[in-house]
Recover the amino acids of this structure.
């Protein structure tokens, strides 16, 4: 468990400088945020993956700004140390710079996030610059862009060709120039991520992008074994909480159906947990 002062943007820059890895996981609610915060995770991302792992949609596209604000507020209440970053959902930063600013403002002001994340280069770079000049920290996101899933033809690895890798590096440089404080690199070859990481002053956070990034992020539900399907092959599973939840619910159902719960006296908690194994 890691306790201590709140992680802030300069701490992430200092970690890159020292060659210390940055650890980021997604969180969508108060309880999970508290647990991950206790574990010493540096950055909690309220990802719009919320739409897929919590709300059951096939893509992140249906996620609304209201939903993001609602979940960001819960995560912010649970994070005592971690930096909270909220995803700007689809079409909340592309329509105009004014809308981008207003929408990012809601995630900061109403949601309690310290920063926002937006996907892509090109127009997203302009939005990044506008937010940063208004005092809103921005994390970029390049490579596999889940909000462009239809254009990409599915959730598939990116920057496989040299020209695409060159474009990705140019986008990363433009985001850094626009004031982004870090960039997520998703599903790209390790060597491309290595080159981008070496070129930039700001930290890169990889997901399915090999070991050379300045930090790593995973969808918490995937690494905890809660996701039932659609888990990308690069994920390492550190627990099997999904199977434990099923076993616990089955044990409870069994006790209720056989009149073992509730009892008049209290059964010792250790015995209950032993029975659920
Ligand atoms: O929404 C999300 O969870 C993300 C991560 C995959 C980086 O953007």
């Amino acid at each position: 468990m890691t306790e201590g002062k709140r992680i802030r943007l300069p701490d992430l820059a200092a970690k890159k400088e020292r060659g210390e890895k940055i650890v980021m996981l997604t969180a969508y609610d108060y309880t999970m945020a508290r647990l991950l915060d206790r574990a010493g995770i540096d950055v909690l991302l309220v990802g719009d993956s919320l739409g897929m792992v919590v709300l059951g949609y096939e893509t992140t596209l249906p996620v609304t700004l209201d939903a993001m604000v609602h979940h960001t507020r819960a995560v912010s209440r649970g994070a005592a140390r971690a930096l909270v970053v909220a995803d700007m959902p689809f079409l909340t930063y592309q329509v105009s710079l004014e809308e981008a600013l207003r929408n990012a403002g809601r995630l900061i002001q109403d949601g309690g996030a310290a920063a926002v994340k937006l996907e892509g280069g090109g127009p997203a770079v302009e939005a990044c610059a506008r937010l940063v000049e208004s005092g809103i920290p921005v994390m970029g996101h390049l490579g596999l862009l889940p909000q462009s899933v239809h254009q990409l033809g599915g959730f598939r690895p990116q920057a496989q060709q040299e020209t695409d890798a060159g474009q990705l590096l140019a986008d990363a440089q433009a985001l850094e120039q626009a004031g982004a404080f870090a960039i997520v690199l998703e599903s790209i070859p390790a060597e491309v991520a290595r080159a981008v990481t070496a070129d930039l002053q700001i930290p890169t956070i990889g997901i399915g992008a090999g070991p050379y990034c300045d930090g790593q992020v995973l969808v918490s539900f995937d690494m905890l074994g809660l996701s039932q399907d659609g888990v990308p092959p690069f994920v390492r599973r550190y627990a099997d909480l999904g199977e434990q939840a099923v076993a616990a619910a089955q044990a409870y159902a069994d006790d209720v159906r056989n009149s073992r719960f509730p009892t008049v006296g209290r059964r010792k908690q250790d015995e209950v947990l032993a029975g659920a194994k």
